[in-house]
Task: structure prediction
Amino acid sequence: MSVEDPRALPPRESRHAGAILGLAVGDTLGATYEFCSPRAVPEGPLEMVGGGWLGLEPGETTDDTALTRAVLAGYEDGPLDLGRVRDEMISWQNTEPKDIGNQTHKALDHLRCHPNALSLPEDPEAQGNGAVMRAAAHGVKAKDAEEAAENAWTEAALTHPSWEARASSSLVAALVANVLDEIQPEEALDASYALLEGRDEPGKRVRETLRPLEGYEHNPGGWTVYTTRLALLGLLDVKSFRPGLEAVVRLGGDADTNGAVAGALLGARFDVGGIPSEWLRDVKGRDDLLRLL
Ligand SMILES: [Mg+2]
Result:
């Protein structure tokens, strides 16, 4: 997808661009408040100011967008190429990024030493946010929700081989695909749960384990279950992109990843035209992401 003005896109392309640019916008807005308490977030509309513990430029994105870009690249020649995703993630690690999660760092080191490996050995402790942060890319690129769920389940194990990380990635990917198909959020979520229910024993409880949060409660960690549940609340709760994303980012904690996952779902729902124009203008790497759609 190559465009001068993302807002001039036809409706379906506009929703696709909304999901990926919504993710990038949520990443950079949230990165300013990563590890903060909700009290540290200023009142009023949020602006793209950069800063945060990483000392970012305004509009600069972090690992969430970089890893999403790696997954998008894995679809550049057609169906998902897991080896390409692995290689793109390793190339990104070679750039010595400002931020890389511990589990992702450890996993990519392992994959370097095992060049034929396309997954890590099962590890129930690997429940960080490193996989769910990139899952929306499958929802955008796979041919339907079923394939998105399957690809995200498989691909998450490149770095996060726990049921929780794989299931939350799979759910987010399927949900993005279903929302892009203009299925209403509640119905889209119901259909996405159904794709996981028959997979395995813990899948039978997925509607409980990954149910939307009941309210906007702060969690200081980067836990894939919390981030997914918060993003589901954001998607179901709001009438437009800005308040949905702001409610999530205002909680601080792992605000960039929470913002990225919620931003992807909200962008799929409200399309690129729903993203405030100043955020769309200032997010870095926008055209590179659009090129991969
Ligand atoms: Mg990040």
